[in-house]
Design goal:
14 helices; disordered N terminus; two-stranded parallel ribbon
Length: 533
């Protein structure tokens, strides 16, 4: 049976050599693909087709895979749209300071009988007047809550009154320019009250950032787990193909011995059964690989047709040793986890709402002031000159107080609701703190356990490999049979698959810790913060 082992090894070396030469050809065809620089999403299908012509899958490192997912994943694009809308909401809220231009025109006509008193004053039985009114104003809001209005008015009128009792006034023009100001002194006073909606819109945008980061963390986490699932599926296909090769070699050798009368027919039958079983397992592994490969393509929004030869994951499957410390990890979690940062932002928003609700409990006390210049004449330009002369000014100043008669139950109820919302936001933040602390603790313990499990699984696989080699030597010496050899080979394959699964579990445990810390995105340089937007 030494010939079996040597033949299998030669075949493996031949396959390895072919893969090596093929990789050199692929590197020459697409030099940029094999570098550590993240690939551009728009180039990946074209390069995949190029490689497929040589019969190779598209080589994909973990870093490049994550870059493709971050750029192409549809769920992330949806969240990005939400983020843009929230940012536009800030601009909409700031629109309260945009001045408005208001213009108006009206035509007035009146023909009425005069009273006895009016007959004496107007020297006429009837009073007839026709006028045109023009007004142009600029109005707006100041950060203090004051409402201002700058305006100009023109009245052009004609009536049947007599000038000094001698002749009718043909037409007269009255012009006025003015400024009005209403400044709240209690309710709605100050920048904080005026800009409440702006602060809330900014908070909503910050929450959208954290929602985007949370979705990206989840998507990238699933993507990396999918990448390792594909790696496991690839290794299982390879391992089970090698198992078929071993079983087929044993079958060929047994058939040769049967022809020379040195082996019973039952040995051949057992070898045939072993080959059939391993081919079935190989087919099952290939099915699982197709599923895993398509899941990986889905993560960065590509059709399988764009990758006719599939993808070839290139990340080495080894134990990743990373330092871990509970206090360091929990500090990172409080600094980076999107849900915790979102809870802090929600609490901040409730504080803004509370300050506004408390302000609304004050009575309305408004300072009102106005100042204007008048001009009146029978010629429009003369009326303007009269107004500019400032000889005919008008002004007023005063206060207006408005107090609800029954204690303002509406604002009192709203204040009570806001206080409860703030309390709820604080409790939610505390609950997230506890959940994060426990998640970090679980992730660290899981990482420690899976690392130890990977080491033990590697030892088990090595021992079973040694037992298989011993059994092959015994078979060559005529001290064993095909059934025992196939059993040992089956034990080795199972142990090796268990080792692969343990390695995958260890890499996923690293992923779990990085997700618990919130450091996963920064590791791949795809994190997004408010300051980046």
């Amino acid at each position: 049976m030494k010939r079996i082992a040597l033949s299998v090894n030669r075949k493996r070396m031949k396959n390895a050599g072919a893969r090596f030469m093929r990789s050199i050809v692929f590197a020459a065809i697409s030099l940029g693909v094999m570098t550590s620089t993240p690939v551009r999403a728009e180039d990946s299908p074209r390069r995949a087709l190029l490689l497929a012509e040589s019969g190779a899958g598209y080589p994909l490192s973990l870093a490049n895979f994550v870059a493709l997912v971050a750029e192409r994943n549809h769920q992330l694009q949806i969240r990005d749209t939400d983020l843009v809308m929230k940012r536009e909401g800030i601009n909409a809220a700031r629109g309260i300071y945009e001045p408005a231009l208001v213009g108006s025109y009206s035509h007035y006509y009146n023909n009425e009988q005069n009273t006895a008193e009016q007959i004496v004053a107007r020297n006429s039985l009837v009073y007839e007047v026709e006028a045109d009114y023009y007004k142009l104003e600029i109005e707006g809001l100041l950060p203090t809550g004051a409402q201002y209005k700058f305006g100009f008015g023109l009245t052009e009128s004609n009536d049947n009154l007599l000038l000094f009792g001698q002749k009718e006034i043909d037409r007269q023009y009255k012009e006025i320019s003015y400024v009005n100001l209403t400044q709240p002194l209690l309710k709605n006073f100050g920048i904080a009250a005026t800009e409440t909606q702006i602060r809330l819109a900014e908070g909503d945008a910050d929450l959208a950032v954290q929602s985007y980061r949370q979705e990206m963390l989840n998507v990238v986490g699933r993507a990396i787990a999918t990448y390792w699932d594909l790696t496991l599926a690839k290794e299982k296909v390879k391992l089970r193909a090698e198992s078929v090769q071993v079983a087929e070699k044993i079958l060929d050798d047994n058939r040769a011995r049967l022809k020379t009368g040195k082996m019973a027919e039952t040995e051949v039958l057992e070898a045939e059964a072993g080959v059939a079983l391993r081919k079935a397992l190989e087919i099952d592994a290939k099915k699982q690989y197709v599923v895993a490969e398509n899941d990986a393509l889905t993560m960065f929004a590509e059709h399988a047709a764009a990758y006719p030869a599939g993808v070839d994951v290139t990340e080495p499957l080894i134990v990743e040793s990373i330092p871990y410390d509970y206090h360091t990890s929990i500090t990172r979690a409080f600094e980076l986890r999107p849900e915790y940062m979102a809870s802090q932002q929600r609490l901040s928003q409730e504080r803004v709402r509370l300050a506004y609700a408390e302000n609304q409990r004050w009575p309305e006390l408004d300072l009102k002031a106005s100042y204007g210049l008048n001009g009146l004449n029978y010629d429009r330009s003369d009326a303007w000159d009269d107004m500019e002369s400032s000889d005919y000014d008008t002004w007023s100043v005063g206060v207006e107080l408005r107090i609800p008669l029954f204690g303002d139950e509406k604002t009192a109820s709203e204040l009570a609701q806001v206080k409860q919302r703030k309390r709820k936001a604080l409790l939610e933040m505390k609950a997230i703190e506890v959940a994060l602390a426990n998640a970090v603790n679980t992730a660290i313990r899981n990482l420690k356990s899976t690392t130890e499990q990977a080491d033990y699984s590697a030892s088990v696989a090595k021992l079973n490999n040694r037992l298989l080699e011993v059994e092959l030597l015994r078979l060559n010496a005529g001290k064993s049979n095909s059934r025992l050899v196939l059993e040992k080979e089956d034990d080795f394959r199972s142990a090796r698959e268990a080792e692969l699964e343990a390695l995958i579990d260890q890499r996923k445990a690293v992923l779990e810790l990085e997700m618990a810390e919130g450091s996963l995105l920064s590791r791949y340089n795809i994190d997004v913060m408010e300051r980046d937007l």
